[in-house]
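TA notes, week 10

Several of you asked for a full example with nothing omitted. So below is the full record: structure tokens for the whole chain, then the designed sequence directly under it. When grading your own attempts, check the secondary structure regions first.
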């Protein structure tokens, strides 16, 4: 079995119009929700074998905060600029290329691709992955190379709103 966790970055700060999309940091709500989500994952004993993250500031900060909370070495996060810039094709190549020695992986990234990817793999009714939302997909496969459309079961989907009543976006 392979387990993939798709994590959307926490809420970003739009207060400074001079920041590029890539440079936008987390806002106060994001800085509150990311550690809470990390604590929630830790309580459930969820710690991946590998974490991939977009190198956009808001995504990487989310990945680092969650990694610290779950005890994953922050310096082992694999930063990929392509996660920020790419769509489904890149994500599929990334996932199919994960080393089979890893049974679980986090991808910390952006919408709308995370929502589309969830639907592609699980065909479930996740209409929208909100900020700091986590989708857990389970594949009945021993090889990442063979995970494909419709090949996953939506094992879990949790959001700050579901867990703590925070508003989703």
């Amino acid at each position: 079995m392979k387990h993939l966790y798709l994590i959307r970055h926490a809420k970003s700060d739009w207060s400074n119009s001079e920041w590029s999309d890539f440079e936008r940091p987390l806002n106060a709500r994001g800085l509150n929700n990311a550690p809470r989500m990390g604590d929630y994952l830790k309580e459930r004993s969820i710690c991946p074998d590998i974490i991939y993250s977009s190198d956009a500031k808001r995504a990487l900060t989310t990945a680092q905060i969650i990694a610290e909370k779950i005890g994953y070495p922050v310096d082992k996060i694999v930063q990929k600029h392509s996660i920020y810039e790419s769509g489904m094709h890149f994500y599929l190549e990334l996932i199919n290329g994960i080393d089979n020695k890893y049974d679980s992986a986090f991808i910390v990234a952006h919408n709308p691709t995370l929502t589309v990817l969830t639907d592609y793999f699980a065909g479930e009714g996740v209409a929208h992955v909100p900020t700091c939302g986590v989708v857990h997909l389970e594949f009945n496969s021993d090889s990442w190379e063979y995970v494909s459309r419709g090949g996953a079961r939506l094992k879990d989907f949790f959001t700050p709103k579901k867990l703590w009543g925070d508003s989703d976006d």
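The mean pLDDT is 94. Use that as a sanity check on your answer.
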